[in-house]
């Protein structure tokens, strides 16, 4: 297989974009932030509009919509290798909301517990714990990945108090994949559960939570639909029913009770207990269409193609004068994301030139992973604060590819980047 040829399924992948020198076909390299939208997902969305109605009321339209909505839970479990007899998928707006639900649940379990997170996390997988409980960060080792010695020493140090270990399934900055199955084995050995943030995983490579009786089983995962080609709100927290049924939700309102009067509340079982208010039915069903498309193409095929794109991109980027690529020799990079800086040119300038002069949309700054970017740039807290205070800020330029990007787009980008590095004008 040489090319997946998926561009034809994407809306707006080649829409002309205005630049300082005229219109050019757009190059979208910011898939980590949000992906462009799959046509089949939008077609599903549009097909629902004429029959759109309330869920769970007696009408044939409602039956169709309710069935598609509820079946999305099975699609999610299939995608992440959850156990339909033990795990449930709770619908959320996005992964941030899902992780806040998880943090709230663990907080109820033991407010004085210690959560082990890592320096590599997006803030969505750090702040929900940090603001509720003592949260310790596992260091990044010499090899650029999670320092397993530091992890074990923290498990030892806080033995008995660590109930949750939380780690990303792939970095949104460098594409590094942490050893989450090894971390799961260790977490379980020390009596803790593990959450893997699969928001940068499910659209790139096959993932499984593994069976519950496996030592490397992943207890919880969460993701966002808009990063998996749906373009709309929608996401999920997946975890064990028996555990989740014990706690109260993050949000309260209608739909979460079986019975209520002025003297008592009987809560619904999960997932309903965690889904207060009217759900984003259309968003959820559109997410289902996007996830089914990914499974149909095959995550293994997507992975294979994207790894080729990544290798080509990395090799070409190394030729750009005065470039600093973060973790360019890492054997752990598993998704096609590269963060870099050009010596002597601010990340903001490089990003603006790429976007405004060449129509290449990319990510810039701390890209939501402030602690990790600070670490990659080797900045102390004082230096980071000084950069913030001075208004200069600190950060990287990030290229993040998706399944529909092409080698030709990479060539165009490299040509633009070389011109920027050498101070040449765009045309
Ligand atoms: C690794 C990771 N986790 C969580 C999030 C948060 O995703 P969302 O804003 O869709 O909730 C992001 C967003 O970029 C991310 O990259």
Structure description:
The mean pLDDT is 97. The chain is built from 13 helices and 19 strands. The two termini are 35 Å apart. A hairpin with a 2-residue loop joins β2 and β3 (22-25). It is of the alpha/beta class and 427 residues long. It is globular, with a radius of gyration of 22 Å. Pyridoxal-5'-phosphate is lined by residues 32-33, 94-96, 122, 124-125, 168, 172, 197, 199-200, 224, 227, 368.
User: Would you identify the CATH H-level superfamily of the largest domain?
Assistant: Type I PLP-dependent aspartate aminotransferase-like (Major domain)
For the largest beta sheet, what order do the strands appear in spatially? 6-12-11-10-9-7-8
First and last CA, distance: 35 Å
CATH topology of the largest domain, by name, is: Aspartate Aminotransferase, domain 2
Work out the count of structural domains.
Answer: 2
Helical run tally: 13
Strand content: 15-25%
Main β sheet profile: 7 strands, mixed
Structural class: alpha/beta
Bound molecules: pyridoxal-5'-phosphate
Q: What is the overall shape?
A: globular
**What is the correct CATH architecture of the largest domain?**
3-Layer(aba) Sandwich
InterPro entries: Aminotrans_V_dom (IPR000192), Aminotrans_V_PyrdxlP_BS (IPR020578), PyrdxlP-dep_Trfase (IPR015424), PyrdxlP-dep_Trfase_major (IPR015421), PyrdxlP-dep_Trfase_small (IPR015422)
Organism: Oceanirhabdus seepicola
GO molecular function: cysteine desulfurase activity; transaminase activity
Catalytic activity: (sulfur carrier)-H + L-cysteine = (sulfur carrier)-SH + L-alanine
């Amino acid at each position: 297989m040489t090319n997946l040829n998926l561009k034809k399924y994407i809306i707006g992948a080649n829409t002309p974009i205005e630049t300082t020198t005229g219109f050019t076909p757009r190059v979208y390299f910011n898939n980590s932030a949000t992906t462009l939208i799959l046509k089949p997902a939008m077609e599903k969305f549009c097909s629902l509009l004429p029959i759109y109605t309330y869920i769970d009321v007696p009408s044939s339209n409602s039956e169709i919509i309710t069935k598609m909505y509820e079946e999305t839970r099975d699609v999610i479990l299939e995608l992440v290798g959850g156990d339909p007899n033990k795990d449930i998928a709770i619908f959320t707006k996005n992964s941030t909301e899902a992780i806040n639900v998880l943090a709230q649940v663990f907080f109820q379990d033991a407010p004085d517990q210690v959560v082990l997170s890592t320096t590599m996390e997006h803030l969505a997988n750090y702040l929900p714990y940090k603001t509720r409980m003592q949260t310790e960060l596992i260091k990044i080792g010499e090899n650029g990945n999670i320092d397993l010695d530091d992890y074990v020493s923290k498990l030892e140090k806080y033995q008995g108090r660590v109930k949750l270990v939380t780690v990303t399934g792939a970095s949104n900055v460098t594409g590094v994949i942490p050893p989450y199955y090894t971390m799961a084995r260790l977490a379980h050995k020390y009596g803790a559960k593990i959450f893997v943030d699969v928001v940068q995983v499910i659209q790139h490579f096959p993932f499984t939570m593994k069976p519950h009786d496996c030592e490397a089983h992943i207890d919880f995962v969460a993701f966002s639909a808009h990063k998996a080609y749906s373009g709309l709100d929608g996401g999920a927290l997946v975890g064990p029913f028996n555990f989740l049924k014990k706690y109260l939700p993050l949000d309260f309102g209608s739909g979460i009770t079986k019975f209520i009067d002025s003297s008592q509340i009987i809560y619904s079982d999960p997932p309903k207990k965690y889904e207060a208010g009217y759900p984003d039915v259309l968003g959820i069903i559109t997410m289902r269409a996007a996830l089914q498309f990914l499974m149909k193409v095959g995550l293994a095929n997507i992975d294979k193609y994207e790894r080729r794109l990544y290798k080509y991109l990395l090799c070409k980027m190394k030729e750009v004068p005065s470039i600093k690529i973060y973790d360019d020799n890492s054997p752990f990079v598993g998704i096609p994301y590269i963060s870099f800086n050009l010596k002597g040119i601010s990340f903001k300038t490089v990003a603006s030139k790429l976007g405004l002069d060449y129509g290449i949309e990319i990510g810039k700054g701390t890209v939501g992973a402030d602690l990790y970017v600070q670490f990659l740039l080797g900045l102390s807290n004082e230096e980071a604060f000084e950069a913030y205070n001075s208004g200069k800020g600190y950060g990287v330029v990030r290229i993040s590819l998706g399944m529909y990007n092409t080698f030709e787009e990479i060539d165009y980008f490299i040509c633009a980047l070389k011109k920027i590095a050498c101070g040449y004008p765009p045309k």
